[in-house]
Amino acid sequence: MAVREELDAFVAKVNSNPVHIANEKDRVFQIELQESGVLQIVLKNGKLSVAEGTPNEPQVTIKTSDKNFSLLLKDDLNTTMAFMTGGLKIDGNIGLAMKLQEIVKKYQ
């Protein structure tokens, strides 16, 4: 399955039961994938959506490979190791990158 399809499936899963994001602030997580390009995960009004490119101003940008992002969406990526070895780079608020990981964990 392509990363975009995996991300769309994750977003659908979250939106079908948004209890864990209902009280989150609106924010934009930008994902810069080495193979697939730029995607944005938009959290607005307690729902997630995906945008291609950069239509929104992100609060955090995560740069990684498609493979690593796929693993992150499955909560199978050792993010600390990936970050320390350069397989995962964060620009902006690192706390928000960790928040995205928390959301992923809650929906496994």
Automatic annotation (TrEMBL):
What transmembrane ranges does the database entry give?
none
Extract one GO cellular component term from the record: cytosol
Gene3D superfamilies to which the protein is assigned, alphabetical: SCP2 sterol-binding domain
Q: Which InterPro entries match?
A: SCP2_sterol-bd_dom, SCP2_sterol-bd_dom_sf
Q: Which residues form the SCP2 domain?
A: 24-105
Q: Which SUPFAM superfamilies match?
A: SCP-like
Q: Name one Pfam family in it.
A: SCP2
PANTHER family tied to this protein: SCP2 STEROL-BINDING DOMAIN-CONTAINING PROTEIN 1, STEROL CARRIER PROTEIN 2 SCP-2 FAMILY PROTEIN
Q: What is this protein called?
A: SCP2 sterol-binding domain-containing protein
Q: Name the source organism.
A: Bacillus yapensis
